[in-house]
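Explain this one:

_____
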Amino acid sequence: MRQLNGTFVAAFVILMSAGVAGAAPAVRPATPRVLMTEMTTFEVKSAIAAGKTTVLVFNGSIEETGAAVVLGKHVFKARYIGERIARELGNALVAPVMPFAPTGAELDKFPGTIDLSAATFATVNAEVVASLVRSGFKYVILMGDHGGNQEPLQKLAPELDAKYRPQGVRVFFSGDEYAKADAEIEKYLEAHHFPPSDHGGVADTSELWAAGNDYVRADQLKMGDPIDRSGADVHLGPSGIEGDPRRSSPALGRMFDEIKVRDGVAEIRRLVSDAKAGKR
């Protein structure tokens, strides 16, 4: 029999020592999925049976945000923040993010923006909720990462709650991830002397940047147009952004997204807890 090479023998002994003693190498358990788009129907069914009876219906928007930010800004942010909120809650899944929303004529004048009427937007959300109720969810949370989402969802939630409450299902609107968090973020920017900005500004751009580097064209971050909120509607100049976004960064975005997750989780927990206690 040919003598075995010494190097081969040493390598063989090292490999075998990891498992021959009777135990296979430790396998790190996979993180349970919470995004329904990445789950099978049977995985969703099992998750609901295991106690994940809350579902987040997060609405985004397809809209222009200048030369540096992709059209799917709100969709990517909603998916990123929604997943983090669901994981923090521990008993929730995230429905497929709704991509289309009321954007208004000012945004719709830019190529790529997709605008829905408030009525169509509400109808789509209502029919999505009906499907989720049939799936077995007991708490449906309507959310939006875009300003045009807030009022229609806030109006729709109590209507759907009244409809499904006799079936033991509750439907709530959660807006703290958007309005409360944005107010806190604006205070931070003011306190740290950031230049004024709004649509496509420092907060908007940074929050998206934290969700993914591919969503922001860093070499296109330039001074935008003056902020004009003199009327009820937004008035955008030719750049499609308001103010100066040049101090945007992924690090700022991570901090701002933490605020959004914290505020969203706190409100949803309060809504569900109050419902269980009969306070709602």
User: Anything to note?
Assistant: The chain has one domain: 30-276. The CA atoms of residues 147 and 208 lie 16 Å apart. The domain at 30-276 is CATH 3.40.50.10310 (Rossmann fold).
